[in-house]
Amino acid sequence: MPVDLSPHEVAAFRRGEAPAPMLDLIGLMACHAIRAARTLGLFDALAAGPLTTDELAAAVGAAPDGLEQLLGLLRATGYVERHDGRHANTPATAAWLCSTSPVDYGRILGLWQAIVEEQWDGLAAAVRSGTPAGGFYTWLAARPDLSSAFHDLQRGLAEWLAEEVVSRVPLPEGSKSLLDLGGDHGVYAEAFCRAYPGLSGTIVDGAVTERSAGPLTWRTADLLTADLPGEQDVTVLFNVLHGFGAPDAAALVAKAAGTLRAGGLLVVLESLPCGTTADLAFGAGFSLNLWHTQGGALYPAETIRGWLEAAGCTAGPWQELTRSPAHALVTATKPADHG
Ligand SMILES: C[S@@+](CC[C@H](N)C(=O)[O-])C[C@H]1O[C@@H](n2cnc3c(N)ncnc32)[C@H](O)[C@@H]1O
Predict the structure, then answer these.
(1) Is 205's C-beta closer than 6 angstroms to any atom of ligand 1?
(2) Span 280-289, pLDDT tens digits
(3) Which among 54, 264, 283, 285 has most CB atoms closer than 10 A?
(4) pTM to 2 decimals?
């Protein structure tokens, strides 16, 4: 957690009287301290109750002097606290950094640390030339632990959002077929199939194993070059467009529209650059990462609407999700007389 600055300190940083990059340096140090703490099992050891340094050292198998230093930084950055000589997790740590936390943000932090440390190498050259490094999914596939963290993150987010997404997207009556482009885990397709008995889902994704389970079938293919099935009642593009450069994203929307029967629905779910100050700052970093590692970006809502309309669809209003205001969806209909 960022250090808790007094208004006087914030003003000094803002006026340039204190070096603002020092705050980012502290954040960088904190990231590494969290990684070390998690490798040691420190937060999980404290989850059972407050411990002295010696007790904690024995519990995690560490030398007390180094541990004391690590605890010093974790305390300064808001991850542990000390009362009467005993260390305890702060509420933020209990909520996000223990293996029993509802969301294990430490795993997400580890994934992002690796992305930034390895994939952002060459950022200046890419910005200078205007040519992103790309290769994100190849890089990811070669790192099984990070790949699991990435796909588990997608799955976890989908499990959190699927119920709301299904409730916001009424399917045409009698819908039988749903195509989930870049659908990975298939959680959204599964949620739609549960809500609409008689519906079957096909998930097309470059990083899946081909298989079938109940009403779902997974196909491995590149979205840009694959022959996709046609006459679909519903086709969804969830968190996919941001991974493509604008011309390819627009072409993918047109290709997705081409999979629909007349009157079918095309649904897009995306992160939009909006939300709290923290959401906006993260979104800016996420978008830079998308550009550099995939040639993509977080696109404005109106840009995506333009692609839907250029593909001959009639788009409804964007709906911001209550569960995650940084995500929004738009539903577009392929007119009965189109194509
Ligand atoms: C950010 S994930 C989103 C997964 C899922 N739709 C969701 O919302 O949870 C993007 C997915 O698109 C897939 N993908 C990206 N580029 C692709 C391509 N060119 N062809 C096929 N799949 C691709 C990735 O493998 C990944 O599973």
Answers:
(1) yes
(2) 999 999 999 9
(3) 264
(4) 0.93
